[in-house]
From TrEMBL:
<dbReference type="InterPro" id="IPR023796">
    <property type="entry name" value="Serpin_dom"/>
</dbReference>
<dbReference type="GO" id="GO:0005615">
    <property type="term" value="C:extracellular space"/>
</dbReference>
<dbReference type="GO" id="GO:0004867">
    <property type="term" value="F:serine-type endopeptidase inhibitor activity"/>
</dbReference>
<dbReference type="InterPro" id="IPR000215">
    <property type="entry name" value="Serpin_fam"/>
</dbReference>
<dbReference type="InterPro" id="IPR042178">
    <property type="entry name" value="Serpin_sf_1"/>
</dbReference>
<dbReference type="InterPro" id="IPR042185">
    <property type="entry name" value="Serpin_sf_2"/>
</dbReference>
<feature type="region of interest" description="Disordered">
    <location>
        <begin position="132"/>
        <end position="153"/>
    </location>
</feature>
<dbReference type="InterPro" id="IPR036186">
    <property type="entry name" value="Serpin_sf"/>
</dbReference>
<protein>
    <submittedName>
        <fullName>Serine/cysteine proteinase inhibitor</fullName>
    </submittedName>
</protein>
<dbReference type="Pfam" id="PF00079">
    <property type="entry name" value="Serpin"/>
</dbReference>
<feature type="domain" description="Serpin">
    <location>
        <begin position="69"/>
        <end position="428"/>
    </location>
</feature>
<comment type="similarity">
    <text>Belongs to the serpin family.</text>
</comment>
<feature type="compositionally biased region" description="Basic and acidic residues">
    <location>
        <begin position="140"/>
        <end position="149"/>
    </location>
</feature>
Length: 432
């Protein structure tokens, strides 16, 4: 056996051994119905020392800001409500980056702005800095009445979850599994894509988003062997709720000039406020957290999308000053569903090779669902990103052998070419 062949054998043995170790560590009680969660034995989540998010996040942030604006520009249609999660999408693709082929990895780095050292440490750190819980959030009582005089702000809930769903028996790359365990804190949910895998993935998404997102894929290719998922959930109260009586049936003028009627929530308070040529903005902080919503209002006829560009947001942040502001804002409650492959392809992500995850896998489907509810008391929002990887179809035949006329056969001993049997088939329907 040559050196290359020996290496292939050893790598195959190592992968099978690692998969066996995963199976030994199975946690049957964890994970959604229809799945079995296995974790990498002996692999602990990396906990990076030092206060604050540190350099990994600082190196990732510019790329995330640019990606978010580029994707918004690619998918947002004038006059259509849009919500998406750049963090959730990028983290799902960051997980996939751990098993990407070199050409695919280069495109991922360019589209998402991943730093040269890779995105994994940054996403690991972000999840610890932003998230308030490592557990699935309980569904809140969304119909409970609230009173400004009696109901205080609840602590914020932020959940950032990673999921990996693998066809039972699939030989997954050991280094890929190690990276997901060490940096994303996830094992592999072993499922059966010929049976109830879609239900298991949906159950996971529903649990991680407190019931806000109940379905990930509308369909899955029957050849699907692995799915990467990311879920982001936020439930946060305003530091200053909108307690003034609302302005009822106020006029809201759409971009096309059409006027619709809606109630406007109102509050007057000392709030961070900024303005510049053609725009104004206010910061609405969430209680008990470092999170805030920036609401940016272009002048009439101005571009909403332009105000989300990284340089525009940086300018806004630098201009905020505490000001006595009277704010009138509509409630909103809507969702967006995206097929990511086409817009990401336009942004430069065209390669689909991920052999570091498993031999023969390619990225076939990429979907994103996000929703948001904003009212007088705060915000509840959720997003789920799903990446589906089928097994590659076998390559097309290079030759055609169609035995539809008489043919000969020989049963031979290959080393010596001694024929054990010889014959011909002149009529395969004749017997005896």
């Amino acid at each position: 056996m040559n050196r290359s062949g020996a290496r292939d054998v050893w790598e195959g043995m190592y992968r099978r051994l690692f998969t066996a170790l995963l199976a030994v560590a199975a946690l049957a009680a964890c994970g959604p119905p229809g799945s079995r969660l296995v974790t990498a034995e002996g692999v602990e989540r990396n906990l990076y020392a030092g206060p604050g998010p540190g350099p990994p996040v600082a190196n990732l942030r510019p790329g995330l800001a640019a990606f978010g604006h580029a994707l918004f520009t690619a998918v947002a249609e004038p006059g259509v409500n849009t919500v998406l999660s750049p963090l959730g999408i990028a983290q799902a693709y960051g997980m996939a980056r751990a098993g990407a082929d070199p050409a695919t990895g280069t495109e991922l780095d360019e589209v998402f702005g991943f730093p040269p050292e890779g995105p994994h440490a940054a996403f690991n750190t972000l999840s610890r800095v932003i998230a308030t819980t490592d557990e699935a959030p309980p569904p809140p009582d969304r119909d409970a009445p609230r009173d400004a005089q009696e109901t205080g702000a609840s602590p914020p809930v932020v959940r950032l979850a990673s999921g990996l769903f693998v066809q039972d028996g699939l030989d997954v790359g050991a280094e890929f599994l190690r990276t997901l365990a060490a940096e994303y804190g996830t094992g592999a949910h072993q499922v059966d894509f010929s049976s109830d895998a879609a239900e298991a993935i949906d159950a996971w998404a529903e649990e991680q988003t407190a019931g806000r997102i109940k379905k990930v894929f509308d369909r899955l290719d029957p050849r699907t062997r692995l799915v990467i998922a990311n879920a982001l959930y936020l439930k946060a109260d305003w530091a200053v709720p909108f307690t003034a009586p609302p302005e009822e049936a106020a006029a809201f003028t759409r971009a096309d000039g059409r006027v619709v009627r809606t109630d406007l929530m109102r509050v007057e308070a000392e709030l961070p406020y900024a303005s510049g040529p053609g725009w104004q903005a206010v910061e609405l902080a969430y209680a008990g957290s470092e999170l805030a919503m920036w609401v940016v209002l272009p002048d009439e006829g101005g571009s909403v999308g332009d105000r989300l560009a990284p340089e525009a947001l940086a300018e806004l942040g630098g201009r905020l000053e505490t000001t006595r502001v009277g704010v009138a804002l509509p409630r909103w409650d809507f969702s967006t569903s995206l097929d990511l492959k086409e817009p990401l392809g336009r942004l430069g992500l065209r390669n689909t090779g991920y052999s570091g995850i498993a031999d023969g896998l390619f990225l076939d489907r990429a979907v994103h669902t996000a929703n948001i509810t904003v009212d007088e008391w705060g915000t509840e929002a959720a997003a789920v990103t799903g990446l589906a990887f089928p097994a590659a179809a076998p390559p097309p035949a290079e030759a055609v052998f169609r035995a539809d006329r008489p043919f000969a056969f020989a049963i031979v001993h290959r080393p010596t070419l001694v024929p054990l049997f010889l014959g011909q088939v002149a009529d395969p329907t004749a017997t005896g």
